[in-house]
Write a structure and sequence with these properties.
Length: 377
């Protein structure tokens, strides 16, 4: 249980706006050209997807009201009313927003990326999972293959004058942001697999995560910003299926996520301490702990509704989807969830702030926070 001292610190942190208070945001905008890392490379699922799924054949692009609070009120492929957590983490690093979706790159912008002059790319794809069998979109394995192609072209693009050593130096100082695993949890729960299969499920997940981290490391990644799996039992689409008919979080689903997160923490500590990956550093940001705290203490962050979706229909606004014909709340900054699964822009801002710079003893990142990760030499 969170101590009184830590709780007081967290309330003060959130009420002050975290690292995105008005003055801090203005400073970040004013110094956008000053980046704390050379680039950001993003991998994972819909929590950080900024539009790759919009370009997949046969996929239905997101429409308004998705993106209603994004500049120019337009849908971008983000599963949010505005910015997502990848955008805010990138903002803290001095960028305007998340790097662009890899599949959105034009020949001109792609060439800038290949020359190391474009500040990274996002390979994330909504619906993907840690396991290749999860989802029907761009698997994490394929995302890393896309990044491998990016690096290969960065090295061989003679127009940019890049050498292998220059690119390796750039990548070693860049942030590799990974947010995945929630869809694997949803698949396990939807398939109604028995508890006896949980250990083998965790083993498969962690084995695949190891493979993904090792693959990125071999391609030059050194700074890993990992986001763990949120409390999936607290999202509206799971709450509404509660066997008791209550609006409370479903503990069995949360327990599944919590067990994996414990294994992920042990895995990353083992990889970092093995000596097999010299120069590797990491931070595990915990959406699980952030959402759990905000759910239990909504008033600390100014939320009035932490159970319902802002956009949708039916009980908890989670029985039908967030479509162009759906109703949506006007006070979006007071909702934790935008649709049945994803957080609002306000939730992403507060969560990213906690993961980036809240004191480690608050439990929102470990063994260091993201700010310490990118500040390390």
């Amino acid at each position: 249980m969170m101590s009184l001292r830590v709780m007081i610190l967290m309330v003060a942190f959130l009420l002050s706006g975290g690292v995105l208070g008005s003055s801090a945001a203005a400073t970040a905008d004013a110094r956008e050209a000053v980046h704390l890392v050379p680039a950001v490379y993003v991998f994972g699922d819909s929590t950080v997807d900024v539009g790759n799924n919009q370009y997949l054949p046969g996929n239905s692009p997101l429409q308004l009201p998705y993106g209603i609070d994004f500049p120019l009120s337009r849908p971008t492929g983000r599963f949010s009313n505005g910015y997502n957590v990848a955008d805010f983490i990138a903002k803290f690093l001095g960028f305007k927003r998340s790097p662009p979706a890899y599949l959105s790159l034009t020949p001109q912008t792609s060439r800038l990326l290949m020359r190391g002059r474009f500040r990274g790319a996002s390979y994330a794809s909504g619906g993907s999972g840690i396991l290749d069998t999860t989802g029907k979109t761009i698997t994490l394995t394929k995302q890393i293959e896309y990044f491998a192609a990016t690096k290969s072209n960065m090295v061989t693009d003679d127009g940019g004058g890049n050498s292998s050593s220059v690119i390796d130096e750039l990548l070693s100082k860049s942030l590799f942001l990974i947010s995945d695993g929630g869809n694997d949890m949803f698949a396990f729960l939807t398939q109604k697999r028995p508890p006896s299969e949980v250990p083998s499920f965790y083993a498969d997940m962690l084995s695949n995560y190891t493979r993904h981290i090792q693959a990125l490391y071999s391609l030059g990644a050194r700074r890993f910003g990992i986001l763990d799996v949120p409390p999936v039992g607290c999202v509206p689409s799971v709450r509404v299926l509660s066997p008791t008919g209550a609006n409370a979080c479903v503990e069995s689903a949360n327990g599944l996520a919590r067990g994996f997160n414990d294994g992920l923490a042990s895995l990353m500590a083992k990889l970092a301490g093995s000596g097999a990956m010299p120069g590797m550093s990491y931070s595990i940001g915990s959406p699980y702990n952030v959402v759990s705290y905000l759910t239990a203490n909504p008033e600390a962050a100014g939320f009035k509704d932490v159970a319902s979706a802002c956009c949708g229909g039916g009980r908890l606004n989670a029985q039908t989807g967030c479509t162009p014909n759906a109703t949506y709340c006007g006070n979006r900054g007071e909702y934790l969830f935008w649709d049945g699964v994803h957080g609002t822009q306000a939730a992403s801002r507060k969560g990213a702030a906690a993961i980036y710079s809240a004191p480690v003893q608050m439990g929102f990142a470990s063994p260091i926070n993201f700010k310490q990760l990118v500040s390390a030499s």
